[in-house]
Amino acid sequence: MRRVLALLILLGVVNSVRSEPHRPRARDAGVVIGRHPTGPLNAITDVPGVAVGHVTLIEGSGALVVGKGPVRTGVTAVVPHPGDIYAEPVYAAAQVINGYGDMTGLSWIQESGRLESPIMLTNSISIGAVYEGVLDYALKHDHDPMPVVAECYDGGLNDIKGRHVTRAHAVQAIRSAKTGKMAEGSVGGGTGMRSYGYKAGIGTSSRQVELSSDGYAFTVGVLVNANFGRRANLTIAGVPIGARLPDASDPPKRDGSIIIVIATDAPLLPIQLRNLCGRAAFGIARTGSSSRTSSGDFAIAFSTAKRHKQDDSVIDRSEHVRHGELTPLYEAVSEATEEAILNAMFKADTMVGQGDSVMPGLPVDRVKSILKEHGRLAE
Questions:
Q1: What is the pLDDT of residue 21?
Q2: SS (H, E, C) 91-137
Q3: Is the distance from CB of 69 to CB of 354 less than 8 angstroms?
Q4: How far apart are CA 297 and CA 101, in angstroms?
Q5: What is the torsional sign of CA 144, 131, 76, 57?
Q6: Do the Cβ atoms of 207 and 219 come closer than 8 Å?
Q7: Which end of the chain is less packed: N or C, by CB atoms within 10 Å?
């Protein structure tokens, strides 16, 4: 088996390392989702000030030796703005779509309506190390926040019990966060993830919406760590793709999770941001999942429109979009979530993990052929 895998890797059929630049994003392959235009980068970083950092850990091959590898994991940081997030928190909300998983800091966000730390994504067993890493970073700046760390299980490919993600990796991810173009697929917290029986991981997308003729235009960006779904249910652009792909009847040993991070520059109150989290579930559903009972599906949303500085004023005055004008933003979240999931799959190559386990990459050419049959592939 190992000789076969080694030959496949040599021939370029199997990539044991990470996403390859030549793999297209969904839209580049002709898959157009929704009606709203994307931002310039079609990424969460289209929201001004939002930065993303990855630390990707890939090492070793062959049989699993707990504590030594093979390692296929990492951590991703989403930083809401370039200022001091601890001293200048932003409005936020979170929602549990299905709770077979964890996101730390959720109760304080629901209580206060504010986000005061970066949002961190990693594997299930490394959630504690990443939490402590965020504290290490914050304490150096004389802050003691409630860190937000969300997890997905990557034990199918990774030596998850070896706990290879450290506190230092969390700090590194925060410090390396950048605006602009970002990596997708098997990177950062998404390194060892899979969706619908194919390799997946980090994906992102954005939408631009106009709320009126008065010039009110805003951006909604979504980043996902996709690690959920069963192949037979996979739906792309409304076409039941999964049923026509190999091994569609072969269910995984366990369901996974998805973490959805939503950013917007629209001035929204926490309760409105919670509504955005709820609409992300429609994006999940459009790809074919109904949030199975053993899936940990969490959404968190924040607005960069105002930084809430600590001062002596008793009244905190904030403008916000009227409730009746929110529908385009709801549509934007649904569309961007759906496309972010597809980007996570399109950009992730086949990966060989612990015990020579193989998670195949999405067969993009076959998917395009099926979509073309249904008239759903853009020219």
A1: 53
A2: EEEEEEEEECCCECCHHHHHHHCEECCCEEEEEHHHHHHHHHHHHHH
A3: yes
A4: 7
A5: positive
A6: yes
A7: C
The span from the CA of 154 to the CA of 15, in Å, is: 17
Judge whether residue 19 has pLDDT over 60. no
Contact criterion met (CB below 8 Å) for 347 and 25: yes
Active site residue 257: yes
Report the mean per-residue pLDDT for the chain: 92
Q: At 214, is the pLDDT very low, low, confident or very high (cuts 50, 70, 90)?
A: confident
Two tokens at 216?
């009110």
Contact 219, 38 (CB under 8 A): no
**Within 13 Å and on the Cβ side, how many CA atoms surround 96?**
17
Instruction: Report the alpha-carbon distance of residue 150 to residue 126 in Å, rounded.
Output: 10
Out of 16, 126, 205, 257, which one is annotated catalytic? 257
Structural domains in the chain plus CATH codes: 24-310+317-366 (3.60.70.12)
Q: At 290, is the secondary structure helix, strand, or coil?
A: coil
**84-88, 107-111, 292-296, 330-334: the lowest-pLDDT one:** 292-296
Confidence of residue 342 (pLDDT cuts 50, 70, 90): very high
Instruction: Give the active site residue among 154, 159, 297, 349.
Output: 297
246 vs 328, more confident: 328
Worst-scoring range by mean pLDDT, 8-12, 139-143, 279-283, 342-346? 8-12
24: phi then psi, degrees, rounded to nearest 5: -80, 155
10 Å CB burial of residue 11 (0-12, 13-18, 19+) is exposed
Report the alpha-carbon distance of residue 44 to residue 41 in Å, rounded. Answer: 8
Give the residue among 375, 379, 358, 338 at the shortest CA–CA distance from 1.
Answer: 358
Can you give the pLDDT at residue 314?
77
Can you tell me the mean pLDDT for 108-118? 96
The model's pTM is 0.93
